[in-house]
Amino acid sequence: MLRIGVAIAIPEPWATQLQDYRASVGDTTATMIPTHITLVPPTEIDDADLAVVEQHLTTVAEDVEAFSVRLRGTGTFRPISPVVFVMLATGISQCERLAGAVRSGPLDVQLAFPYHPHVTVAHHLDDASLDRAFDDLAGFECDFAVEGFHLYVHDEHHGWQATRDFRLPVPGSV
């Protein structure tokens, strides 16, 4: 069995900035999780199904155009889940459409919560640390183009590793 996920990687310099911040507030998972917007949460598949999943993701990528995202400010899932995140100010509907397309066919997975695109910056920490992350990053803002997404495979020793890129066509070329 493989444990996979599908996500949009946050580009540099913001990926390292947010990952370093996550580590600084005591989130010990930070170094094992690249900074991202989840499309498919951790999901187990048979090794033999990997080629089918990759073909599905290739097909999805061919039909979804690149788009822009603006990250701005913080939000939280508390009290439901001990998570603080950076919010999407633009690109929400495009992420929702992409996630819906990716989570079909061989990746038709049930979600524990409704899909809400975000970038986690603190997870499973005490309330004081979550409050600090919420306040410290309230003014965070960046803009970037989403030109693709990645298939990640979980490695017990190295965390989540991007194993394949799926490029999105530029607007007007589909």
Short description:
This protein is of the alpha+beta class and 174 residues long.
Can you walk through the features of this model?
This protein has 174 residues and is of the alpha+beta class. The protein contains 4 helices and 8 strands; from the N terminus they run E-H-E-H-E-E-H-E-H-E-E-E. The chain is globular and about 45 Å long. InterPro entries: 2H_phosphoesterase_YjcG-like (IPR050580), Cyclic_Pdiesterase (IPR009097).
Key traits:
single chain; 174 residues; Cyclic Phosphodiesterase, Chain: A; four-stranded antiparallel sheet; 4 helices
Helix-strand layout with pairing:
Elements: E1 2-9, H1 14-24, E2 36-45, H2 50-62, E3 67-76, E4 83-90, H3 92-102, E5 118-123, H4 127-136, E6 141-146, E7 148-155, E8 159-167
How many β strands by DSSP? 8
Number of helices: 4
Q: What structural class do you assign from the helix and strand content?
A: alpha+beta
| Whole-number total of structural domains | 1
Describe the sheet with the most strands.
4 strands, antiparallel
The CATH homologous superfamily is called: Cyclic phosphodiesterase
How far is the first residue's CA from the last residue's CA?
35 Å
The overall average pLDDT, rounded, is 95
Pfam families: 2_5_RNA_ligase2
InterPro entries: 2H_phosphoesterase_YjcG-like, Cyclic_Pdiesterase
